[in-house]
């Protein structure tokens, strides 16, 4: 498993991407935050730019494009301003497609009740912490602490750890970039969501190369699921000391959402021009 700093750049060395695709049909699966938009202090501010929106739409005319996010599906659709792409929200628990409508991966009632209890507990215990943001979701609750002072961050992590300790067999936490997400302890993640989408959309044949773009720890499940059958693209600069030496199942890298947009434009041009020839 290579270090992120060792990964080849998919845009500046586009021929490497083409070699890995090996002439197969491309299907794009992309995270939202940190990939289509930069990471921002407040989740509600992560609105896609018109330029990125145009690039995603153009690419979707040339190949399948699916958005896979930890956010609630309806929130992603609102931030993107689109209603004609497949979107898998809540780490794939809530999927919507233009043709099939909503496809919800249902939890048991006991999990839903525990998530509601966890939401209430973090809201009550952390209400006095400046900068903490509680984001209730369909199947989880995310505790953002990017704006919390370093002195208070341990209070946030201690609260989450107490909740997990009380329900070790039913709840888990997924860490992200200055966020802790409390989720049901079930066998489901972004990797399983991508494989499920591939099957449902008829994209699991040998003539298709699935490409997943992600920037966070939760995206490693998707990179791992596609290892050996698709292409994982990590989004983030190799100069970032927090990620440069981290090992990843991704096979390529892009530096930023801006470079993702340029990569999408290049890929769309290649696919569209190729169809015209």
Q: Based on the coordinates given, report the CATH architecture of the largest domain.
A: 3-Layer(aba) Sandwich
- Listing every helix as H and every strand as E from the N terminus to the C terminus, the arrangement reads EHEHEHEEEHEEHEEHEHEEH
What spatial order of strands do you see in the largest sheet? 1-13-12-11-2-3-4-5-6
Helix coverage percent? 25-40%
User: What is the number of helices?
Assistant: 8
Measured on Cα atoms, how large is the radius of gyration?
19 Å
N-to-C terminal Cα separation, in Å? 38 Å
Strand content: 15-25%
Morphology call: globular
Q: Mean pLDDT across all residues, rounded? A: 89
In total, how many domains does the architecture comprise?
A: 2
What is the CATH third-level topology name of the largest domain? Rossmann fold
Q: Pairing-aware structural class of the strands and helices?
A: alpha/beta
The main pleated sheet reads as:
9 strands, mixed
CATH structural class of the largest domain: Alpha Beta
Weakly predicted, low-confidence segments: none
């Amino acid at each position: 498993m290579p270090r992120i700093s060792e990964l080849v750049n998919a845009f500046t060395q586009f021929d490497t991407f083409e070699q890995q695709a090996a002439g197969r049909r491309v299907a794009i699966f992309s995270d939202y935050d940190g990939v289509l938009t930069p990471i921002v202090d407040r989740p509600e501010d992560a609105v896609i730019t018109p330029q990125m929106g145009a690039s995603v739409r153009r690419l979707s005319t040339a190949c399948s494009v699916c958005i896979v996010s930890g956010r609630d599906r309806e929130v992603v659709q609102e931030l993107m301003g689109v209603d004609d792409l497949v979107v898998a929200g809540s780490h794939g628990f809530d999927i919507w497609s233009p043709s099939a409508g909503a496809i919800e991966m249902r939890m048991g009632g006991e999990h839903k009740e525990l998530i509601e209890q966890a939401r209430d507990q973090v809201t009550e215990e952390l209400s006095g912490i400046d900068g903490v943001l509680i984001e209730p979701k369909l199947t989880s609750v995310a505790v953002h602490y990017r704006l919390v002072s370093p002195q208070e961050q341990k209070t946030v992590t201690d609260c989450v750890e107490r909740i997990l300790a009380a329900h070790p067999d039913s709840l888990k936490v997924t860490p992200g970039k200055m966020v802790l997400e409390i989720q049901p302890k079930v066998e489901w993640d972004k990797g399983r969501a991508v494989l499920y989408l591939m099957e449902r959309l008829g994209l699991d044949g040998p003539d298709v190369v699935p490409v997943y773009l992600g920037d966070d720890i939760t995206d490693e499940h998707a990179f791992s699921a596609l290892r050996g059958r698709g292409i994982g693209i990590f989004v983030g600069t190799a100069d970032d000391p927090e990620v440069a030496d981290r090992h990843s199942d991704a096979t390529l890298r892009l530096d930023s959402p801006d470079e993702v947009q340029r990569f999408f434009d290049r890929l769309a041009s290649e696919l569209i021009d190729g169809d015209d020839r």
